[in-house]
Amino acid sequence: MYWDIISAEYEADYRIRVSFRNGKSGVVDLKLLVEKGGVFDALRDMDAFKAFSIDPEWHILSWLDGRIDVAPETVYEQATGEKILPLVAETHTSYGE
Fold it and tell me: Counting C-beta atoms within 10 Å of the first and last residue's C-beta, which end of the chain has fewer, N or C?
């Protein structure tokens, strides 16, 4: 998909500069996601956060050998400021009419 991440570089704090398959790039700030906690608690440790990789199969940011990842759509929208359009248009069909 066009939002596949092809490169990523740590910037500062919880920010990562990412480049996408479609040639676009930008910086994603994951601070709010990390602060939510839950599965992301482990990333509060800055050394753990900096140890991200790009999953070679799914082309997403991942941490801790793939145990933590962020949806590529989320990263793309935040880094580029562009909304990803739905792949299937919603239809409003009334059944039984």
Answer: C
Residues 42 and 49: their CA atoms lie apart, in Å, by 8
Rounded to two decimals, the pTM is 0.84
Amino acid at the residue 17: R
Alpha carbons 7 and 64: distance in angstroms, whole number: 18
Task: Write the CA distances from 16 to 7, 43, 45, integer angstroms.
Answer: 10, 13, 15
DSSP conformation letters of the chain: -TT-EEEEEEEETTEEEEEETTS-EEEEE-HHHHHH-GGGGGGGSHHHHHT-EE-TTT--EEETTTTEE--HHHHHHHHH-PPPPPSS------TT-
